[in-house]
Write a structure and sequence with these properties.
Blueprint: E1 16-24, H1 28-39, E2 44-48, H2 73-86, E3 90-93, E4 97-103, E5 106-111, E6 116-124, H3 150-153, E7 161-165, H4 169-178, E8 184-188, H5 198-205, E9 210-213, E10 216-224, E11 226-236, E12 239-245, E13 253-261, E14 271-279, E15 285-290, H6 294-297
Parallel strand pairs: 1-2, 1-6, 2-3, 7-8, 8-9
Antiparallel strand pairs: 4-5, 5-6, 10-11, 11-12, 12-15, 13-14
Helix pairs in contact: 1-2, 4-5
Length: 300
């Protein structure tokens, strides 16, 4: 547990005016900025609406960070924060920011609880949050087969069957990366036509190991401890169909889904959302046509 400063005890009426720098966001970027500011003997404070660490807190195991052969996301976040604290950075967690305004040569940062802080400069490193698929089992299996970065986690699924969910540039770019590891790659998209650039489609879909599945949507992710199967549903010629990927505990299978988003993302601009699903390579797909209904066949 980090020993943070006491912004919560500050006056909510008069802004604190003796700060040089306010950093909003406690991920690796914010903690790095805070470390350099503290080493420069600046009066700096770091604020985060949650705990420090950012998205790495959602990563169970990290094996590609220089200097650490293997470290959990929470451990790495703790080490980063302790490093910055050692040099005098003040860190306040669970302090969401409401607004930022300028008053002369100062920047005023107002927190949700009414506290106001003043500094000569503000660095915003809030990053973003991946857009979720919003299906049953996604949250439950996050970190146990479900993740949000193909580049980060693709190597964990070497030799497995994978599925990319999405039809835009991000999905196809991540799909191309995953072909380095995948035994078989399915591209699942909710529309008939892909929206990715033609050159990306040509590169990915021409590969023998790649099979498109359209129109289809993931409906559920399930398993036992780790993800073992996914359910997808689609419509063809006015009828809906369902398919399940079954698993056996002895044979690992994986899927990574990626869909582009232009709303809340991992960075300040549009970026992919990826879901890695561990199931069974030896699975079979069962497809059954069922009568369509207006409510279930309507596409957004």
């Amino acid at each position: 547990m980090l020993k943070c400063s006491s912004v919560g005890e500050l006056s909510r009426k008069d802004p604190v005016t003796d700060l040089d720098l306010i950093i909003i966001g406690g991920g690796p970027a914010g903690l790095t900025a805070g470390l350099y500011a503290a080493r420069a003997n600046m009066k700096a404070i770091l604020l985060d609406s949650k705990d420090v660490g950012g998205e790495i807190l959602n990563t169970e195991l990290i094996e590609d960070y220089p200097g650490f052969e293997s470290v959990t996301g929470s451990e790495l976040a703790q080490k980063m924060a302790e490093h910055a604290l050692k040099f005098g950075l003040k860190i306040e967690t669970y302090k969401p920011v409401k607004e930022i305004r300028s008053e002369g040569d100062r920047k005023i940062v107002k927190l949700e609880d009414g506290t106001e802080l003043s500094a000569y400069a503000v660095i915003v490193t809030v990053g973003g949050e991946p857009t979720k698929l919003g299906v049953v089992g996604e949250k439950e299996y996050h970190g146990r087969g479900v993740s949000y970065c193909a580049v980060c986690d693709g190597a964990f699924f070497k030799g497995a069957d994978l599925a990319v969910i999405g039809g835009g540039d991000s999905a196809f770019q991540e799909g191309l990366f995953l072909t380095r590891f995948a035994n078989k790659l399915y591209v699942v998209h909710r529309r008939n036509d892909f929206r990715a650039q033609a050159i990306l489609q040509d590169r990915l879909l021409k590969m023998d190991k790649v099979e498109p599945i359209t129109p289809a949507e993931v409906k559920e992710i399930g398993g036992n401890g780790d993800v073992k199967w996914i359910d997808i549903e689609g419509s063809v010629n006015g009828s809906t169909w369902k398919a399940s990927s079954c698993s056996s505990a002895s044979s690992p299978w994986g899927a990574i889904s990626s869909r582009n988003t232009s709303t809340t993302t991992r960075t300040a601009t549009s970026s992919p959302t990826s879901t890695c699903v561990r199931a069974s390579r030896a699975c079979t797909r069962r497809a059954t046509r069922v009568p369509s209904s207006p409510s279930r066949s309507r596409r957004r």
